[in-house]
Amino acid sequence: MSEASLIGLLFATVSFGALLYLAALGELIAEKAGILNLGVEGMMAIGAVTAFIAGVEFQNPWVALIIAMLSGALLASVHGFFTVGLGAEQVVSGLSLTILGLGLAAYLGKDYVGLPPGAELVPVEWGGLSNLPWVGPILFSQAPIVYLALLLGIAASLVLSSTRLGLALRAAGESASSTDSAGHSVLGLRLSAVAAGGALAGASGAYLTLSITPQWAEGVTAGRGWIAVALVIFGAWRPGRVAWGALLFGGTLALKTRLQTFGVDFSPIILSMLPYVLTLLILLMISVRSRKRPSPSPAALGLAYRREER
Amino acid sequence: MTQTSTPGEEAQLSVELAGIWKTFPGVVANAGVDLAVRRGSIHALLGENGAGKSTLMNILAGVYRPDSGELRIQGLQHQFRNPADALSAGVGMVHQEFRLIPSFSVAENVVLGAAPSVIKTRQIERDVAAISHKFGLKVEPSQPLWQLSMGERQKVEILKVLWRDAQVLILDEPTTVLTPSEVDELGDILRRMANDGRSIVFISHKLHEVSGICDEATVLRQGKTVAGSLDMATTDSDELAHHMVGTSPAIATRPEAATPGRPLLELRNLSADGDRGVCAFSDVNFKINSGEIVGVAGVAGNGQRELADVIAGLRSPSKGTLMMDGTDITAASPRRRFQSGLAYIPEDRLGVGLAPRLSITDNAILRVYRQQRRGLFILAEKAMAYCSEIVSRFGVRSGDLNGPIATLSGGNLQRLLVGRELDGEPSVVVASQPTRGLDVQGVKAIQDLLLDQRNRGAAVLMISEDLDELLTLTDRLLVMEGGIIRAEFDPGTASRHEVGMAMLSHAQVTAQS
Question: Are residues B335 and B481 in the same domain?
Answer without folding.
Answer: yes
